[in-house]
Each structure stands twice: as structure tokens, then as C-alpha cells.
# Entry
Amino acid sequence: MAASATIQRTIYTGPFVHSLSLTELEICEKGAIGVDENGIIAFVEKELDLGAVQEKHSWQDATPVQLKGNAFFFPGFIDTHTHAPQHPNTGLFGKTTLLDWLQTYTFPMESSFTDLKRAETIYRNFVSRTLSHGTTTAAYYATIHVPATNLLADICLARGQRALVGRVCMNSDLSPDYYRDASVSQSVADSKASIDYIRSIDPKGSIVRPIVTPRFAPSCTSECLTSIAKLAKDESTFIQTHISENKGEIALVQELFPTSKSYTDVYDTHNLLTPQTILAHAVHLSAEERKTILARGATLSHCPCSNTAITSGCAPIRSLLDEGHTIGLGTDVSGGFHPSILENVRHAIWTSRHLALQSPLGDAAKLSTEEALFLATRGGAAVVGLADKVGGFDVGKEFDAQVVDLGSVSEGGENEGKFDAGPVDVFGWESWGEMVEKWVYAGDDRNTTAVWVRGRVVHRTARFEGRVVDGTATP
Ligand SMILES: Nc1nc2[nH]cnc2c(=O)[nH]1
Ligand SMILES: [Zn+2]
# Structure
């Protein structure tokens, strides 16, 4: 579907659920969200019937999309950190930890992206896969290759998924000689070429934007870090990198940058900590490092599935939130074993409970369902610089949304062994709050039946199909 196709004014009626704040989830049982021709939310009503809404706003000509049954609208998920070229390795990590995982699984896979046909297959698959899980925005790491990176941006634009797309910079000899930038000047020139290309296909950055991507401190020489920070400044781009993920990695950073006070100090002294910097992991930061990151306005991507899979550690998210850090969730495929942000919502909660069990903080370490859903939506939006555009159903925001349809036992369960409506069993007596909890703890992509970005349908399933025509939702 071309991202530039026009859409019709639409009124989405039915329950909607979104975060009002970190701790408050609004559940409106009788919602009506008016979305204009540009995909912008023109009004949100909370207790009127469709006819009354049409009349109140003089929107009689708008297309209605009315949800039936145990379904609700939820904001699209924001994946603040993922590696599209690693997707074929999803689920493959054995007992490795970060540094041997990179050499064993990751660099061999990423280096194969000189083959554009292969890149196309993998990138198309991954963008479709993440959309099907309700991810409407993703901050992507690509590889060092400019043509394949540009192709990823093309695919995101064509599919209508919002994306920050980064060509990975890595020039140090941590990387094998078959997969690294030839020089600092090559690193900068290739990154600039990719930035220019991405801006040429979407000049306003409405859907895709470039992001400067030094892989992590050990992958880059000091000169490379400085030069790439200058590029980000000159080009006014976001920056993404990894920080303090694994104890062996932290020791390596100390060895490679002996005059630096800490991992954070390496980035700080190379001008890489800005309000437009996304730092993934942040598992083992010291109190001083946390203060520096906060002072610079850099934001954090929490990647709980990855932190467990490659045994990096439990990031202290509750404490980081209390200190005022801006935090979103990241799948970190394929350190992370799952492309779904919903899966990471669950694992963010599980990780916080493991911390509660093991740390003196006790219950104070626990994240609530509401908090984890906030991180997946509004928190993520703030991390990728889109807090004014997406993350919730507010007038003036763009309509990035998913339908979560839980079906009902009477629909599928009566038919032994056929659970077409997905993995959640709803018996009919649950409150909407309980249904949201059931979805968070047991739901999956079978429950995400339709997805919109800027008011345009970017994914739909057979369950929703009858109600959607040609990219425009109809009843
Ligand atoms: N999880 C993860 N950490 C990294 N640190 C440097 N590169 C990577 C990567 O690809 N994944
Ligand atoms: Zn990563």
C-alpha cells in the first residue's frame, strides 16, 4: 500500500484504552475517535452514540468503523530498539552472552547484507512481522551497508511503518575484518550517504527518518565516535547506541578507553549524549552515570527479553523512572527472542518482579501493568522524539492504533481445539480492566486484528477483513 494514498474522514467507535500518565490507564467503554483526511485525531468523544457524534461534529459524511464484541482500540506500540538484519537469528543464542554472541551469531548474519536480494527478503519479512504485532514505530539498526540500509527505509516507507533507520558505524578491530568500516572517513561518508537517501525519499520525515548509529563504544575508535557525533550534530539527527548491557562489555570499555571515568563518560566526552540520544539497555549504570544521562537529556530503551536471553542482567527500571529518566521498550531482536513489544511488556514486569525478589527495594521495584503499557506507548514516543505526535488518543495526535480483539469463549471455545480468536479465553463476565490484564499476560498477535499509522491501515487480519476495504476502514 503506498504511504501517500489518501484516506477518508473516519469515526472509530468502540472501547478504547490508552495511558493518561505513567500510572493511569484510561478505559473508555463508549469511545468515538474522529480521524481527518490527514490521519490526525480531530475529536475524542467518550459517551455519545455514532449519530450524536456525527451531528455534533457535522461529520455525517465520515466513514464509521464500529468495533463489536470484546475488542478495543489501543495505541500502536513503539519499539525503541531493534536490529532488523538479525531477525533470522531470532531465538538463536544458546548459552552465549553479549561478546561471544556478537561474534558467533550476529556479525556473520549482518555481514551477509551485501546481498540485496537476501536483505530484501529479511527486511520485508521483519517489517510485516512487527506490524502484525502492532508495532507502528520502530528505531531500527540496519548493517554497515548503505544499499541494504536504504532498502530498509524504502520498505518501511512503502509499508507505512514509522521508522528511524540507522546505518551501523563500526570501525574498530573488535569486529572481524570481513565486517567493519574501512576507515573513519568511510564510516562518516557512508552514514551521510544513508542520511541523504532517507531524507530524499521522505523529505519531511513523516514516516522514515535517519538516525546516526555508532554500534557501541567497543566497536568504534575514539576518532570515529567524535566524527560520528559531529555528523549527528551537523545533520540534526537522532543518535542510537548501546550502553552498560553486560559486565564483560563494561570491563572491555574500561580497557579500550582507560582515561574515561565510566562507560557513560566515553559517550559524554565524545559528544554523543544529547536529548536526541537513545541508549539501549542501561542495566549496570552507576548512580553518577545515571545523573549524567539525566542531565544530558538522553533517553533509555529497556530491552527485557534480550537482557534475560543473553543473560545481561535486570535493568532497575522502577528506580530509573523514579529518578526521572525517559524510558521506552525495545525488542532488541535478536539479542531479544521476540519481535513483539507486548512480549516485552510482560517481560518488563517479570524482570521487575525478579528485582523485587532479590533487591532490598522489595515491592518498590515492581512495575505495574499500567506502567509497562505506558513504556510501550507514550514512553516510547518520548524516546523517539514523537511525544507530540503518537502514543495516545489525544486531539491533534496522529492516529497510530491497533485493534485488540479478544473474541469470546462462545465464539471459539465451543468448537473443541479451534481457538480462532487467539490465546485469551473471555467468558463474558470480565470487566474491561480484566480483559486488558488478560491480554497483557496471555495475548499475542492473533489478538491484533488491524493496525493503522497516521490513519492508514498497515496491517489487517481475516478476522477484521470484512470491515476494511482498500486501506480505508469501513464498517
Ligand atoms: N543486544 C545487542 N547489544 C549489542 N552491543 C553491540 N551490538 C549489539 C547488538 O547487536 N545487540
Ligand atoms: Zn541492540
